[in-house]
Amino acid sequence: MIGIQRAGCEWTAALATVLALACVGCADDGPIGNTGSIQVAVDPAVLSVPLGGSGSVTATLTRGGGFSGPVTLAIAGLPAGATTTITPAQLLGTTASATVDVTVGSAVTLGAYTATIMATAQGVGQATTTYQLTVTAAPEYALTVDPTSLTIVGGSSNIVTVSIDRTDFTGEVALALLNPPAGITGAFTPTPTTTNESELVVSVAANVAAGSYPLTIQGTALGPGTRTTTLTVTVPAPPTGGNVEYLFCAAGDVPAFFAYQDGTGPWQAVTGVASGGTTRYAFTLTQGRGGVLSVYAASAAAVTGTLNAGGMTNLRPVASRHAPRVSSRSSFADGYETFLLYGSTAELAQDGQNACAQDPPTKTVTGTVLGVPAGEYGRVSLGGVSRIFNGAASSNPITFSDVPAGPVDLLGSRTIPGAAPDKVIVFRNLNIPDGGSLPSVIDFNGTASFAPATATVTITGAAGDDMEVYTDVVKDDRARALWADLSPSPATTRPWAGLGAAALLSGEFHELTVFASDPTSDDFRVSLKDVGPVTDQTIAFGPPINAPTASPVVAGAYPRFRFQGALPAEYNKGATIDVYGSENVFFILATGAYLTASGSALAYDITMPDVAGLPGFPAAARLTAGSNDVTVSGFGFTGPGIFDPQPTPGTEYKASIRNTAISVP
């Protein structure tokens, strides 16, 4: 009996021991052996983090076989200088994911690294997964300003372009003048901006003391922080008795002869004073208005191309922007260009400062146009330089000359004459070197093309004339051609097209221009309207102006003419008279303010000044003997501007151009 009891007890003890061993860890760690498992995954599989920046991935745990114990996460494989934080570092109960934050120090070597996430727990095998950490350069940007210096008369303003040179950074940059002196203010358009440029209008109050003012332009961006650049503004001594100063900052812009008239007084020659690369012509106006005359020796290439003679060459009205021909003149020889501006003291003072603006550098770029079949046309503009590709006759490559240096936009449209375009293309911020090619073809059948926004324009006041419609996109006060209907006709209701809201950048808007041409002559009218989104519009033309009365005043070695005429009320901003001979050309502009002071803003009576006897006048600059073409225009506009409207949504511009001829002895 005792033996049986001993044997039973030994059996019971052994069974208790086995059960105890089997249950070790049961209460805390779950089953062991092959009864449970874990897996771990990561999202995203690739993480890019810039130097000095941070990012995160999500580690997700999957439990199997009834395993429910705690799981600890750890990271391996990060480069030296990179740190990580796991939240939570241990996954308990039903928690199935953790956030893995990675911070990359500024000294980490750029490149791709394989990081391993390890999940471990008691009683199950370790689970691992990997993701790629790509260390990139820190986002950066720099500010530059062009030009770097301005001369602004008190009570006026001027414009510079602020460029944002980005490196691995696409975020917004807010621009501001940092603590400018009292009386000097700046307005940026746009700001904040994700683009590469912003226009800065610097205004100087009339009471700002003469001097040189360094202005700090500051950019502020999330991530890279603040950056600055400097613009120097020189405020000349305020006019005393109507002082005016013309500044020419480029040697090629200095005239061969310069003279002025105070009110209706005698013309007087002025000798330029050169200092520090700038040539100054200073004079005094006491009658509140006057005239400025400058003469330039010009080659045939300059006359038939883009005129470059300082501030006054920019005073041609916008009527000629798209006009196929302003004069019937077709050829020139080497000769002289004479520019004559009549204006108020304030207008001449402003033009004198504008004369110092230097032409920006340009470049030549080639490209290839595809997807324009016979019977259709592609109109492509690069940095404002426009080309038309005839699907039936044009060949590749096409060449864009005189493209502004630096980043520019490309706009293109494809159309059948008389219809709205069916495709447009926009390439932004193309920084192509001089002599280079576009980085991709301009393919109107490609994936980069898209449908434009279209609407209707109703035209009034041009019955019987052949009309054409043009659309430009305005950015930073520069109009860039997008589309033209290429179908002159008297139709008064016509389609027009532009960029949809998704394609327009902040600050961009459309400029809708309509030309009305007399089918029996070279005379035409223009009406322009700055609008925002593409919507139905109505455009009204002003009436045609009459040909001027042109009468000879004197013959001899320096023949002169008198031009008289009246202007309709729509053309109250001024009149221009251009005389084209086979050798020499003579440009005249009289502002509305000058004409008003002379009697009426709607009448002009201009006699070419007698300057032949003044010292330094080149006698060869006289009108060319024989037949000379004469182009007269009257123009008016709403909104800001002196000689031309400043592009602003809501602005309207109207002009009428009339051609005639004179016979010069």
In whole angstroms, how far apart are the ends?
157 Å
Question: Which strand-content bin applies to the residues?
Answer: over 45%
Give the biggest sheet. 12 strands, mixed
Number of strands: 46
Question: How many helices in DSSP terms?
Answer: 5
**Form type:** elongated
Rg calc: 37 Å
Average pLDDT level = 86
Strand order of the main beta sheet, please?
20-19-23-24-43-42-45-46-38-37-34-35
- What percentage of residues falls in helices of 4 or more residues? under 10%
Descriptive notes:
This protein is mostly beta strands. Among the domains are: 37-136, Immunoglobulins (Immunoglobulin-like, Sandwich), CATH 2.60.40; 140-235, Immunoglobulins (Immunoglobulin-like, Sandwich), CATH 2.60.40.10; 363-540, no CATH class. 7% of the residues lie in helices and 49% in strands. The chain has five helices and 46 strands. Strand 14 (184-189) and strand 15 form a beta hairpin. The radius of gyration is 37 Å and the shape is elongated. The N and C termini lie far apart (157 Å).
In short:
7% of the residues lie in helices and 49% in strands. The chain is mostly beta strands and 665 residues long. Among the domains are: 37-136, Sandwich (Immunoglobulin-like), CATH 2.60.40.10; 140-235, Immunoglobulins (Immunoglobulin-like), CATH 2.60.40; 363-540, no CATH class.
